[in-house]
Amino acid sequence: HQFKSMFLLLLVVYTVMMVTLITVYTHRMIGPTLPIMRHIRALKDGFYSQRVKLRRYDCFQELADELNKLAETLEKRKE
Questions:
Q1: Which class for 23: exposed (0-12), middle (13-18), buried (19 or more C-beta within 10 A)?
Q2: Is the distance from CB of 36 to CB of 63 less than 8 angstroms?
Q3: Cα–Cα distance measured from residue 31 to residue 19, given in angstroms and rounded to the nearest whole number
Q4: Mean pLDDT, residues 13-38 taken together
Q5: What pLDDT, on the 0 to 100 scale, is given for residue 46?
């Protein structure tokens, strides 16, 4: 009986840890795609002064930086 209780407790702890890790990971993976997509649409529509701002530890930070450089270049060419 004690083994069964310990197993259930460990299973619950493991499940909570996994759900937490998955939530954090997917939030950092999926979250940045929305502002990046908005920025690409803005560039396509000719709004070169907008920039992508992501949270510090989000994935795709390098992509956002490159898109911001592209927007800067396009903004300078427009002038």
A1: exposed
A2: yes
A3: 17
A4: 92
A5: 92
Model-level pTM?
Answer: 0.67
Contact in structure between 52 and 35 (CB atoms under 8 Å): yes
- Mean pLDDT score of the chain: 92
C-alpha 6/C-alpha 38 separation (Å) is 49
Position 51, amino acid: R
Whether 71 and 39 have beta carbons less than 8 Å apart is answered as yes
d(CA 53, CA 22): 23
CA dist 64 → 6, 33, 43, 61, 71 (Å): 46, 10, 13, 5, 10
